[in-house]
Every structure is written in C-alpha cells, then in structure tokens.
Amino acid sequence: GYRLTAAPDDVDLTRFDRLTGDGLTALADADPAKAAVLLDDALALWRGPVLADLPDRTADAARWETRRLDALRARHTAALALGQAEASLPELAALCDEHPLDEPLQALRLRALRDTGRTARALAA
Question: What distance in Å separates the CA atoms of residue 58 and residue 67, rounded to the nearest whole number?
C-alpha cells in the first residue's frame, strides 16, 4: 500500500477551512480589511466541485459547499464594510439567484443596492 504524508496546510480544504475561520474571526473583531484578505485567499483555493473525484462524496461535499457559501457571505460583508458595494453587487445578485431562500445573502444584496444609491430597487427587492 501507499501512504501519503502531508502537513495540514498542504491540503486545500484544510487551508480553506483555516483561512475562512481566521477571516470570520477578523470580521467579528471589526477588521474587515484583514477579513477580506483572508477570505479572498480562502476562496482562491476553490476550483470546481469539491471532492469531485471521490465516491460517496455527497454528504461531505454538501458540508463544504455550505462552508464556501459562508465564506462568500462573509467576504461580501467585509466588502460592504469597506465601501465596495458596487464591486460586490454583480456577484451578490448571481448568488441570490442561485440561493433565493438564503435570507442573509438577500440582506447583503439589499444593503449593496442601498449603498450604491439604488434605494428604489432595494425596496422593490
């Protein structure tokens, strides 16, 4: 048999999880600039469907997809806190289309619309 030895940061999912946790902590500590950098680094590790080559990956993949959505929400929260609503709005709109029942995501889109001066559109949404 074979044995693969890897440090935790050698595995993208482990690194993603650590960076996401650090980003969420920075956001909770009212440091959106640091959170944005950490979350950008975490999300940059994400390429395609998670665990795509593994059999019986459904439960684990769903958990990681949820964690990715948490990271995206946090990244957009940081962007809005940094005054980057205009840049976040296109991705937020796409995410809201993909996840229409995700209330925190919808709230972020409404904040971004308001912050870009589209109050009427925010109220309509």
Answer: 14
